[in-house]
């Protein structure tokens, strides 16, 4: 332990027994260092993961509340997950690294968080049976910055029940073929800002789920992946509430979707006041898509009487190229429909020379202002 000035205290994990050779299990050493950090009464308590070392961690929970109003988890080296499925025996397999009830938490640095998820992708097909890499629950005033996260077994970052979250300059990378490896999943959270990140994975770059409001996403480069999605919402008849979402100045490059809203039939609630603006699309499928018939592939998506109500949805300032014949697809619920949709200054052409892209709608209501392709199917 070293004191850095009057109000900051630094706790190096190697001072608590961490070896950092990529072979030794350093989980207990990290827990000892974390307990010291959480007990510290300085204004800023810093857990330091030094450069030039690789620390192997089994599933670990970094719990609060902590005494210090500001807790800094500074990653300079590499933190790596278990290499074998057998190393997970006796542990919670829902997540690898978990932060809970830690207010004023900053996790940053120029280090690497490596989920080593390939062992899961090959042997565990059900994504629910795989752990997410880094989860944050009930952590208010949370900041994430600078890190590279790779190869999570499932989602790389999950934000749940948090408020006042800032995420900047992250790199999140997994193979396009690694199913369900979302970049950032957000649920039941508010006042979240995501800026200037690169995300290329095997699923949604960012997914905004029920219980979210006031989410701002700016300057994200997404691809490969499934785009930036609101949802899925309303599964198994669930009630959803999502509002005040803004996604702008983002790029979708080679993604399966661009700006997407997806809901299940049979749900209820609402998703409203959602804006996608100033978006660049490069050789992407489904650049603009509302899918209220979302379901597991291979199953029939039957229309039901109830659905999540979508309203106040704006797509503005899109430009680029589509690999889909339908560059704009607004498939709204036949029973509930989407209202107050705005398409404004859209210019999406085919990625295939000489082809013409189209639009399609189901029960979609709103306005189309200067869009290519024209959305003739949009009703007043």
Automatic annotation (TrEMBL):
Entry's EC annotation: 3.2.1.15
Active site: 226
Entry keywords, A to Z: Cell wall, Cell wall biogenesis/degradation, Glycosidase, Hydrolase, Repeat, Secreted, Signal
SMART domains assigned: PbH1
Reaction(s) catalysed (UniProt annotation): (1,4-alpha-D-galacturonosyl)n+m + H2O = (1,4-alpha-D-galacturonosyl)n + (1,4-alpha-D-galacturonosyl)m
Superkingdom of the source species: Eukaryota
GO biological process per UniProt: carbohydrate metabolic process; cell wall organization
Pfam families: Glyco_hydro_28
Main location: secreted
InterPro entries documented for this protein: Glyco_hydro_28, PbH1, Pectin_lyas_fold, Pectin_lyase_fold/virulence
Subcellular localization(s) per the UniProt record: Secreted, Cell wall
GO MF terms held by the record: polygalacturonase activity
Annotated family: Belongs to the glycosyl hydrolase 28 family.
Protein name per Swiss-Prot or TrEMBL: endo-polygalacturonase
Organism for this UniProt entry: Durio zibethinus
Lineage: Eukaryota, Viridiplantae, Streptophyta, Embryophyta, Tracheophyta
Gene (name only): LOC111275446
């Amino acid at each position: 332990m070293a004191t850095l000035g009057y109000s900051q205290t630094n706790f190096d994990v190697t001072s608590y027994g961490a070896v950092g050779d990529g072979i030794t299990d350093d989980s207990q050493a990290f827990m000892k260092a974390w307990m010291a950090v959480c007990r510290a009464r300085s204004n800023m308590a810093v857990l330091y993961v030094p450069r030039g070392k690789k620390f192997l961690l089994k599933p670990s929970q970094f719990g609060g509340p902590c005494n210090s109003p500001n807790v800094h988890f500074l990653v300079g080296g590499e933190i790596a997950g278990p290499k074998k499925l057998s190393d997970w025996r006796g542990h919670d397999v829902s997540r690898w690294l978990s932060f809970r009830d830690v207010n004023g938490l900053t996790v940053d640095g120029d280090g690497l968080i490596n989920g080593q998820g390939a062992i899961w992708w090959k042997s565990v097909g059900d994504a629910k049976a795989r752990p997410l890499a880094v989860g944050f629950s009930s952590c208010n005033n949370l900041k994430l910055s600078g890190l590279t996260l790779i190869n999570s077994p499932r989602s790389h970052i999950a934000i749940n029940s948090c408020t006042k979250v800032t995420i900047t300059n992250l790199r999140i990378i997994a193979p396009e073929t690694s199913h369900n490896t979302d970049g950032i999943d957000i649920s039941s959270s508010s006042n979240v800002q995501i800026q200037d990140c690169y995300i290329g994975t095997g699923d949604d770059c960012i997914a905004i789920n029920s219980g979210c409001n006031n989410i701002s996403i700016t300057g994200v480069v997404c691809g490969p992946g499934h785009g930036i999605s609101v949802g899925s919402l309303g599964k198994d008849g669930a009630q959803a509430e999502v509002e005040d979402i803004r996604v702008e100045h983002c790029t979708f490059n080679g993604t399966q979707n661009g700006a997407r809203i997806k809901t299940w039939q049979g749900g209820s609630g609402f998703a409203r006041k959602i804006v996608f603006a100033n978006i660049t699309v490069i050789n992407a499928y489904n650049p603009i898509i509302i899918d209220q018939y979302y379901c597991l592939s291979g199953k029939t998506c039957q229309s039901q009487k109830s659905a999540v109500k979508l309203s106040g949805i704006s797509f503005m300032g899109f430009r680029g190229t589509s690999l889909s014949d339908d560059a704009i697809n607004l498939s709204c619920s036949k029973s509930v429909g989407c209202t107050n949709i705005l398409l404004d200054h859209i210019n999406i052409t085919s990625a295939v020379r000489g082809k013409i892209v189209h639009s399609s709608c189901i029960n979609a209501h709103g306005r189309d202002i200067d869009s290519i392709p024209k959305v003739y199917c949009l009703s007043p």
